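Protein modeling request. Please complete all fields; requests missing the sequence field cannot be processed.
Requester role: graduate student
Desired output: 3D structure, C-alpha cell encoding
Chains: 1
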Amino acid sequence: MYPSDLPALDGGDLTSASEEYLSSLESRPHDDEWFQSSQASKVAVTANNINRLQLFEDEQCECTVLALHPPGRPSHVVALYLHGRWWCLDDVLRTSSKSRIGLVSVQSILERVIVFLLSQVVDRPSQEEVLFSPHPSTESCKLLWKDSQAVGFYTVKHKGSLCDNWSNQCYLLPVLDTMLVRRSWRRRGFGLQMLDDFCCSFTSEEVLGISAPLSASMVAVCRRFLQLHEDHRDNLYEVEAPGGWTQRRNIWLNIQLRRYSLGFNKNNPAQGSTGRNEGHESSKMVKTSEPHVLETSKQDMASPNTCKVTLPPVIGSYEQQIEPCDPSQGGSSLTSSKTGSGCSLTPQAHDPDPRSPTRSPGSIRTPPAMRSKPSLTTDPRREKPEQTQRITKRTKRT
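Delivered output (398 residues):
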C-alpha cells in the first residue's frame, strides 16, 4: 500500500497532523530518529531538517505538508510526512490500485500532493527555480499513470473560470494551462496523449487554447500533434488570459512561419525568419527580371530591321491599343511578322502593371524624326503620272 491508496484526507486533517508531529518533535531529544533516504545515506529527523510545504497558491486554503531534507539543502526533498509516518518520494508517486491506468482526474488531496511533487520537487535540480507556481486547490487536473507510477499531469482552465483572484476577468475558452512529463518517461508519446485527451474533452468548442508562452518542447508536441490531426489546425491557439481574439495566435500558422524556436540556433539568421526571407527573395526576382526585359527591348529597337516605337503602358487587348504604321510614310504594319518589313511586336510574357495610367490609343505615333523618307531609287512602276511627265519634258529639252 502507498499513501495514495490509503483512506482519503482533507486539507485540514493534513495540516493539523503536520503541526502535531512538528510540536512533538521539538519536545523530543535530538538524534532520536533517522530516515534511510537510500542504501548509502540517511537523514536525521530534526526540526532543522524539516520544511513546511504550502500545497496551493490560495491564501484562504491553508494546506501544508512536512518535507524532510538533508542538512543545508532545503530544496532537496527526500521524504514527506503522510498518514503518521515518513514516505520516500518514489513511494508517494506510486499506487497499488489497478484502476489507476492512463489519464485519471484528480479527486483526493493526496493526488493533489502528487501533482505538487511533480511540478515543484521531482526532477528539480538543486538551487534552480521551480517550473510552475503552485496550482489552485480547485484546479482541474489529470494525472497520467503508467506501470503503477505517476509519470505526468496536465491542468486546464475552464471556459468561464476566473483568470486570477484580483480581477473579474474570466477565460473565454478552455485553456490547457500546464503540462509535465517526468524526465525519465519522456520521448514515449505521453505529451501527445495528454494533448489529444485535452482536445477530445472539449469537442463542442470551436476554439481551444494553450497558455502562452510555449516552451520549445511544447511546440514540438504541438507540431507533431497537428501533423497527425489536421482537423485541429484551425482551432488550436496559443493564448494569453482571458483569451480574446487579440490575445490568440494560431499555433499551426506560427509553426509554418517559423516563429517558434524548435531548438534552432538563434544566431543563424536563416532560421526563424524563413517566411520573411522567402518574400524578400521573391521581390528580388521580380526586380531583377525587369532589367532583363528592358535590355531585350533595347536590342530589338537597335536592330536595323525594326522601327523604334515609344509605347505607353497597355490596358485591354493588344490589337485595340496598337495602331498600324502608315505605309504611305514609308513604314510597315506593326503587326507584320516578316523580318525586315517592319516592327514585329508580339505580346510580352512580362506585361506592365494594368493599373498604371495610360494614354488613349490614338496617342501612339511614330516619332517624326524616325519616319522614312521616299527613296531615290523608287520603283518606276509606283511613280505618279505627274512625275513621269516632268522627266519626259526634261528629256526633250536636252
